[in-house]
Automatic annotation (TrEMBL):
<feature type="transmembrane region" description="Helical">
    <location>
        <begin position="31"/>
        <end position="53"/>
    </location>
</feature>
<feature type="transmembrane region" description="Helical">
    <location>
        <begin position="267"/>
        <end position="285"/>
    </location>
</feature>
<comment type="similarity">
    <text>Belongs to the NrfD family.</text>
</comment>
<feature type="transmembrane region" description="Helical">
    <location>
        <begin position="105"/>
        <end position="123"/>
    </location>
</feature>
<dbReference type="Pfam" id="PF03916">
    <property type="entry name" value="NrfD"/>
</dbReference>
<keyword id="KW-1003">Cell membrane</keyword>
<protein>
    <submittedName>
        <fullName>Formate-dependent nitrite reductase membrane component NrfD</fullName>
    </submittedName>
</protein>
<keyword id="KW-0812">Transmembrane</keyword>
<keyword id="KW-0472">Membrane</keyword>
<dbReference type="InterPro" id="IPR052049">
    <property type="entry name" value="Electron_transfer_protein"/>
</dbReference>
<feature type="transmembrane region" description="Helical">
    <location>
        <begin position="65"/>
        <end position="85"/>
    </location>
</feature>
<keyword id="KW-1133">Transmembrane helix</keyword>
<dbReference type="InterPro" id="IPR005614">
    <property type="entry name" value="NrfD-like"/>
</dbReference>
Amino acid sequence: MPQDSAVRPYAGETYYGCPALKASPFGWKTAGYIFLAGLSGSAQILGTVADLGGGREKRNLVRNARGLAIAGTVVGPALLIGDLHTPSRWYNMLRIFRRTSPMSIGSYILTGFGAFSALTLGADRLGLAGVARVAQVPAAVAGTGMSVYTAALLSATSTPLWAASPRLLSVRFGASAMASAAAALSLGERLGGRPEGAETLDRVAMAASAVDLVASVAAEREYKAEGVAGPVEEGPWAPVEKIGAIAVGAAVPLVCHAINARRERPSAALSVLGSLAILAGGMALRSAMLHAGNRSATRPRDYFRFARPRPALDHRPAPDRIAR
């Protein structure tokens, strides 16, 4: 075998067309968990910020945020446990702690977030405002982890699409989570007859959607550069990614909220449309990435193309520097 065979370009080798990896067994339930985990974590962050800096006029917003946080920690894990195939796995993760395992860290983030969120909401309902104010801080810190840890969990695998762009996947999940939380709370403010609060949340959603859109475009380019873009460019999940996650989930709300930001009297219809688009797009993003990732695991060409050794960089000084 030639000495340079370890760094030669990928020539199309496969396991006779058989997958080199085994796709994950997870489906829509896990996608739903990933969506709700991010939404609930970011909702707790927004609720904490509103409580610490918003005064009594933000009281309803704070309570809605705390309710969303609890709803996410109840419904989301139930979906995840239902998709584990062996439900007892969930509590086995709490028997050990491995700082190098995103799944182990994520289990403790979820447990801590659920505990502090429950304490915050419970104290609030019992009239213990001081206890709730203290407990919401660690809940918000754990909420930050809830917003992005699922991206690290996927990126830590050998699945080409998930591992190809770990940082941008985290940015997409985090930005989408913040936009989704702001959108859900904005709808709550609209229903409660508090348009001023909805307008503030719409601005948060607009900024998060802009970050999501930029990260989505950058991720598409990186997937192409790594040679793993097939599942998001063709097949059943390509339109879910491009139309559902990017167009509906990021571009449409960005336009709606940008138009409203220029108006003296923002349109309630545009606000609601933008919020609903964000929520639909957030779920589409998680579904597309989960299922397209599973599809990339069954494509041996994608795996070998992505996993091939990269040529070592030549760090020798340039000739003109030697001469000097």
